[in-house]
Write a structure and sequence with these properties.
Blueprint lengths: L1 H12 L1 H14 L4 E4 L14 E5 L9 E8 L2 E14 L5 E6 L16 E9 L2 H7 L2 H43 L14
Antiparallel strand pairs: 1-2, 2-6, 3-4, 3-6, 4-5
Helix pairs in contact: 1-4, 2-4
Length: 192
C-alpha cells in the first residue's frame, strides 16, 4: 500500500515538470503557440490573464476565433479575435475582417491568410499571469523547483509513514510473542 502511495504521489509531484516538457514538445514539434491574453477584447470567453494554447490550422471561416500576426509601426503583435467576414481586396486576394467579442466595432486592418497562426485549442484561466510576469526561463525553473521540492517532501513523509508502519507491526509481533502467540504460517512453508 505504501509503495502504491509513493508511486501516485511522485507522479503527481512531477506534473508541473511534465507539463513544461509537453508544452515544449507541442511548440517545437507540432507548432502549437501559447498566448497570454492582455486585454478584455474577447470577454467573456477569454479573459485577461488567461493562457491560450493555439493549434495551427489550414482553413478558417467566419465565426472562427483565430490568432494572427499584425505588424504596426515596426512592432509585431499577436491578436486573438473572431473572423466576422471574408472579403477580397483590389488585387483579388482574400482577407478577413476580425473583431473582438467584447467590441462593437471591427478591427481597422485587413488580416490575410498568411498572417493566421491558428485557432485556440483551449484556455487555461489565470495561468497566463504567472507566464506574463516572469520570463519563461524563470517560470520553468520555478515549476521544476516546485516539482522537486514537492517530490522530496512527499518522499520524506512516505518514508516516515513506512517506518512507523513497520515499527507498529514489529511491536505488535513482540506483543503477540509475549502472550505465546506465533506468527501465522505462510502458504507452502513448513509442515502441518
Amino acid at each position: 500500500m505504501v509503495r502504491f502511495r509513493k508511486g501516485i504521489i511522485s507522479l503527481v509531484s512531477y506534473f508541473p515538470l511534465f507539463f513544461l516538457v509537453l508544452a515544449l514538445i507541442l511548440h517545437f514539434v507540432f507548432g502549437f503557440h501559447y498566448v497570454v491574453i492582455l486585454t478584455n477584447s474577447m470577454e467573456p470567453h477569454i479573459n485577461p490573464g488567461d493562457l491560450v494554447i493555439v493549434r495551427p490550422v489550414e482553413e478558417v471561416s467566419p465565426g472562427d476565433v483565430v490568432l494572427y500576426r499584425l505588424e504596426l509601426q515596426g512592432t509585431e503583435y499577436r491578436i486573438i479575435h473572431r473572423i466576422i467576414e471574408v472579403r477580397t481586396d483590389e488585387n483579388g486576394r482574400i482577407y478577413y475582417v476580425t473583431k473582438g467579442d467584447n467590441r462593437e466595432y471591427t478591427d481597422p486592418w485587413r488580416v490575410y491568410p498568411s498572417q493566421i497562426i491558428g485557432k485556440p485549442l483551449f484556455v487555461i484561466p489565470y495561468v497566463g499571469r504567472l507566464y506574463y510576469y516572469l520570463p519563461l526561463g524563470v517560470t520553468a525553473l520555478i515549476l521544476a523547483l516546485i516539482a522537486l521540492v514537492g517530490y522530496e517532501l512527499v518522499k520524506t513523509l512516505l518514508d516516515e509513514l513506512e517506518k512507523t508502519e513497520k515499527e507498529s507491526i514489529s511491536s505488535f509481533k513482540k506483543l503477540g510473542e509475549g502472550y505465546g502467540l506465533r506468527s501465522s504460517r505462510r502458504p507452502g512453508k513448513g509442515k502441518f
